[in-house]
Amino acid sequence: MLLEGKNAVIYGGGGSIGGAVARAFAREGARVFLAGRTRAKLEAVAEEIRSAGGVAETAQVDALDERAVDEHADAVAAAAGGIDISFNLISHGDVQGTPLAEMALEDYTRPVVTAVTTTFLTSRAAARHMIRQGSGVILAFGGEGDPMRDYYLGGLQTAFHAIEAMRRQLASELGPHGVRVVTLRTGGVPESMPKGFDGREAIVADIEKLTMLGRAATLEDVGNVAAFVASDRARTMTAATVNLSAGALID
Question: What's the burial of 142, exposed, middle or buried (CB within 10 Å: 0-12/13-18/19+)?
Answer without folding.
Answer: buried
